[in-house]
Amino acid sequence: MKARLRQGAGDVMTLGAFMYNFTQNLLPSSISRPSLARWSSRPVLSSWLLLLSNTSRTTVSVASFDPPCPSRFRKKTPSIVMASSHSTTNNEQRLPQEFSDIFHRVDNSFSSDQARSLFPQLTSAAHKGSHGRIAIFGGSEKYTGAPYYAASAALNCGVDLVTVFCAKEASIPIKCYSPELMVQSVYSVEELDDLVREDAVLKARMETERDGEQMNMIDEERRLLRDRQHHILQKTILTITATFPSLHTLCVGPGLGRHGLLFPAVAAVLEKAMESNLALVLDADALYMLSLEEYRDTLKQLISYENVVMTPNLMESKRLKQSLRNFRNYEDFKGDDPWSNAGIVVQKGSTDVVSQKSITLRCKEKGGLKRSGGIGDVLAGTISAFVAWNTLLQNGGGGNDDVTRQLENRIFAVWMACCAVKKATRNAFDRKRRAMSAQHVLEEIGEVIREIEHNLEV
Ligand SMILES: NC(=O)C1=CN([C@@H]2O[C@H](COP(=O)(O)OP(=O)(O)OC[C@H]3O[C@@H](n4cnc5c(N)ncnc54)[C@H](OP(=O)(O)O)[C@@H]3O)[C@@H](O)[C@H]2O)[C@@H](O)CC1
Ligand SMILES: Nc1ncnc2c1ncn2[C@@H]1O[C@H](COP(=O)(O)OP(=O)(O)OP(=O)(O)O)[C@@H](O)[C@H]1O
């Protein structure tokens, strides 16, 4: 697939087909009937990917069909040729307007086999951990819900084991939310606050002190304080990095908070993760941290790291873009788009835009009309699950072919996670309307994943 993408040969090239019955009632019946196409195979797909490619940029969009997938899809995605024609079925009338005038071709580049390979197989040979071990580094005094949502979303998707690394102050509440989560306190906000307070006192004394001997003593006290700080943060870093060999994904950020003393430890954890080639999902306060001038070097490293997914909301996206533009050596990141990096970026919005280098996939799945806090955390956890499975595929021992396929599939895995959360949000909204919260989205995500897999198997 990668080779095809790089070729950029066709003005319009359709990459592949998914059979995922996501978007029932995708369009209101009032939408004007598009000039539709006739499919060489009847519209058997519940969804398909349109890859519009030109030499500089590639865009994949998603549309959907309603009908259940027939058995022939079991084997392989049928080759579909779209010709300019008119609609003959209700299903075709449901095509989104935006695709009506696109003359395109769908081929077998992304087959249902590949879509299936986004999920690890459920077999009796599986053991605890075969379907993914992930960790969430987040959760602070103020935010205990965010890491819980992210971790539970991953569990509800089907990951086996999830550990939450958080502040001591957050660990008991998170444990009480769910017995399934392994929760480990890796630092204490109180302890960090004490360090800040003691340093402020010493600094103030230093400013007023005139006696040389006293000043030396204060200097020494500050040095000891720095040692204590170093020791505390090293413990945080070592506790987390010690788990790296057993992890398939590390998600950093949900509810992390913005404690200035913790950030150096977060940056060190990210750097160690890159050294270990561990898959990273970065959200919320991890993205805030990366937009700060002190952490530009870390951001710079992440920009050229292949194994990262960043999931900024509107604000986080603005901050990071601004930070990238402010790079003194911005020439390192030539190109109009500061996002054109090695890893994957998901810009969340009414349409989630998933991009990697010159490839862009758009998740057109409709969400709900309620935007409660925490749905971004559910998304971070869901993406972490799909990325963990993608890592498992890489570790599957299939040799270089598997590695190549893993890289090709990862962006589709992330896109699929975005669509799943949108669909779960819509189901939750349909059920709860204004009372909908992230907890209700969590309750839906497992069923949505089941539906996706069912549609791939039936
Ligand atoms: N239950 C919990 O524990 C939860 C904990 N959470 C945790 O909170 C932490 C901070 O995360 P964050 O999202 O509040 O911080 P940040 O991105 O700086 O936004 C700050 C301000 O930016 C704005 N704004 C944001 N998006 C916008 C948009 N699309 N369109 C327009 N404006 C937008 C908006 O400003 P306002 O509209 O209020 O002016 C917003 O208040 C982080 O750790 C996260 O994980 C949450 O996950 C929720 C559940
Ligand atoms: N304008 C929008 N219309 C519809 N859905 C949206 C819109 N903006 C974001 N979403 C969806 O809401 C979910 C969370 O995105 P959001 O931008 O709120 O993230 P966030 O601020 O990080 O969330 P959180 O509250 O967990 O911190 C995603 O699934 C995204 O697709």
From TrEMBL:
Pfam family, one: Carb_kinase
Cofactor: Mg(2+)
Cross-referenced Gene3D superfamilies: 3.40.1190.20
One GO process term, biological-process aspect: nicotinamide nucleotide metabolic process
Binding-site list for (6S)-NADPHX: 255, 313-319, 377
Known EC number: 4.2.1.93
Signal peptide interval: none
Residues reported to bind ATP: 348-352, 367-376
KW Zinc-finger (keyword) present: no
CDD domains named in the record: YXKO-related
MF GO annotations: ATP binding; ATP-dependent NAD(P)H-hydrate dehydratase activity
Family matches, as InterPro entries: Carbohydrate_kinase_pred_CS, CARKD, Ribokinase-like
Keyword RNA-binding appears in the UniProt entry: no
Domain YjeF C-terminal: from-to ranges: 111-452
Superkingdom per UniProt: Eukaryota
UniProtKB keywords: ATP-binding, Lyase, NAD, NADP, Nucleotide-binding, Phosphoprotein
Catalytic activity of the protein: (6S)-NADPHX + ATP = ADP + phosphate + NADPH + H(+); (6S)-NADHX + ATP = ADP + phosphate + NADH + H(+)
Record's function text: Catalyzes the dehydration of the S-form of NAD(P)HX at the expense of ATP, which is converted to ADP. Together with NAD(P)HX epimerase, which catalyzes the epimerization of the S- and R-forms, the enzyme allows the repair of both epimers of NAD(P)HX, a damaged form of NAD(P)H that is a result of enzymatic or heat-dependent hydration.
Entry's family note: Belongs to the NnrD/CARKD family.
UniProt-listed PANTHER family: ATP-DEPENDENT (S)-NAD(P)H-HYDRATE DEHYDRATASE, ATP-DEPENDENT (S)-NAD(P)H-HYDRATE DEHYDRATASE FAMILY MEMBER
HAMAP family the UniProt entry points to: NADHX_dehydratase
Name of this protein: ATP-dependent (S)-NAD(P)H-hydrate dehydratase
Organism: Cyclotella cryptica
